[in-house]
């Protein structure tokens, strides 16, 4: 298939491009490089041994999109492009709605214009808000606690309306839990700008001596050790889930939502311990107050994805930490 990957030089997008190319798909990457670097394209090509086409454009650039849809016989779109920092979204809501929601609408309009009606959308477990129970199933109530989450929810709702109005759309809403890890080659991984918001990139920078200590947000949650628990999933498993989703959509019309998670959860302190084991260094940490908006425990029921996509996460916590560390060392040594 010819697949357009928006946000394809980003963290999850780049791993998915590798997976798509290995499965024999032709990939066209679109990214405005607001949160990634062009050199990722060469690294994707190095891993896969195949050429990828790259366009540095934004998803709201109608002219740029027209050029791609006219030039290549795009058959499906995997839509990763978007801003994802929860804190920034609280401070700059309009930027998030404009980039994520308005940008997505323009992309979907262009898809409709060129009759490309197969879409995989990067949603998030954040659309479940603060769930009443865990594990989380796809039919749980949806809500948002910040503009980033609301942008995901709005896009999901727009897509549900589109599927209702035109049943020839084939749409998958993939709700990721906590993506971590990096490609086992060590050539691509998460490359945060500035101070990392997420746990694993922060731990990796502490291990590498770039930050003094980790602040553990909260020690009084009702969990095994008082720290927050999440469903960490290896990005390579996540990437494989997208390829399986394209296979599924090839055979069915309509709109579907799937949790992509492992069904397991780990505390912050368990993650610290696992990372220490992977890198052979100690990770200094200090307890700090709870981070506003955080919930105690979040993990998926991945049963629907297993049943309908034939997909399940395979990689262990040790592999996640080992691969993050390998990538951290590569990125440092190569000034990435
Ligand atoms: P990322 O920032 O690494 O990748 C997103 C890419 O989109 C970046 O390369 C960025 O330059 C690009 N981009 C942003 N706005 C754009 C625009 N208007 N036009 C073109 N390109 C644009 O993030 P990621 O972690 O790879 O996340 C990918 C998607 O998955 C995002 O939509 C994110 O919201 C979603 N998601 C991520 C997580 C996570 O924890 N990483 C969890 C759930 C959902
Ligand atoms: C994990 C745990 C923190 C950093 C976020 C978004 C969510 C989704 C995934 C996109 C929590 C603790 C963290 C630190 C810490 N993204 N922590 N010290 O909050 O589950 O989810 O990323 O859709 O929308 O909200 O992930 O990695 O930030 O935090 O103690 O320096 O680590 O409190 O318990 P989170 P995270």
Automatic annotation (TrEMBL):
Catalytic activity, reaction form: UDP-alpha-D-glucose = UDP-alpha-D-galactose
Protein family (similarity comment): Belongs to the NAD(P)-dependent epimerase/dehydratase family.
Major enzyme class: isomerase
Domain NAD(P)-binding intervals: 4-323
UniProt superkingdom: Bacteria
Entry keyword set: Carbohydrate metabolism, Isomerase, NAD
Keyword Isomerase on entry: yes
PANTHER family in alphabetical order: UDP-GLUCOSE 4-EPIMERASE
Protein name: UDP-glucose 4-epimerase
Cofactor(s) the protein needs: NAD(+)
Key word Isomerase present: yes
Pfam families in alphabetical order: GDP_Man_Dehyd
Complex and partners: Homodimer.
GO MF term list: UDP-glucose 4-epimerase activity
Family matches, as NCBIfam families: galE, PRK10675.1
Upper taxonomic lineage: Bacteria, Pseudomonadati, Pseudomonadota, Betaproteobacteria, Burkholderiales
SUPFAM superfamilies in UniProt: NAD(P)-binding Rossmann-fold domains
Pathway involvement of the protein, from the record: Carbohydrate metabolism; galactose metabolism
EC number: 5.1.3.2
């Amino acid at each position: 298939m010819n697949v357009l990957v928006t946000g394809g030089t980003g963290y999850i997008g780049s791993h998915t491009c590798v997976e798509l190319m290995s499965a024999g798909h032709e990939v066209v990457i679109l990214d405005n490089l607001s949160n990634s670097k062009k050199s990722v394209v060469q690294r994707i090509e190095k891993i896969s041994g195949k050429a990828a086409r790259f366009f540095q454009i934004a998803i709201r650039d109608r002219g740029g999109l027209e050029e791609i849809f006219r030039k290549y016989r795009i058959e499906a779109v995997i839509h990763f492009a978007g801003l994802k920092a929860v804190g920034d979204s609280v401070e700059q809501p309009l930027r998030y709605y404009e980039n994520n929601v308005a940008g997505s609408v323009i992309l979907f309009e262009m898809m409709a214009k060129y009759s490309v009606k197969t879409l995989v959308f990067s949603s998030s477990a954040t659309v479940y808000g603060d769930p009443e129970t865990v594990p989380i199933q796809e039919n749980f109530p949806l809500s948002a606690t910040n503009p980033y989450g609301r942008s995901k929810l709005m896009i999901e709702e727009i897509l549900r309306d589109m599927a209702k109005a035109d049943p020839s759309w084939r749409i998958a809403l993939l709700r990721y839990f906590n993506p971590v890890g990096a490609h086992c080659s060590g050539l691509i991984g998460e490359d945060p700008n500035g101070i990392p918001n997420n746990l694993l990139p922060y731990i990796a920078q502490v291990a590498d001596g770039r930050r003094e200590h980790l602040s553990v947000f909260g020690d009084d949650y009702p969990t095994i050790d008082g720290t927050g628990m999440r469903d960490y999933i290896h990005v390579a498993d996540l990437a494989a889930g997208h390829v399986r989703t394209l296979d599924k959509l090839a055979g069915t019309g309509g709109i579907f939502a799937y949790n992509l998670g492992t069904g397991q959860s780990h505390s912050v302190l368990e993650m610290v311990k696992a990372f220490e084991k992977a890198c052979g260094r100690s990770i200094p940490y200090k307890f700090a107050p709870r981070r506003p908006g955080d919930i105690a425990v979040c993990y998926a029921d991945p049963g629907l994805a297993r049943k309908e996509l034939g997909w399940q996460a395979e990689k262990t916590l040790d592999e996640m930490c080992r691969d993050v560390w390998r990538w951290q060392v590569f990125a440092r040594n190569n000034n990435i």
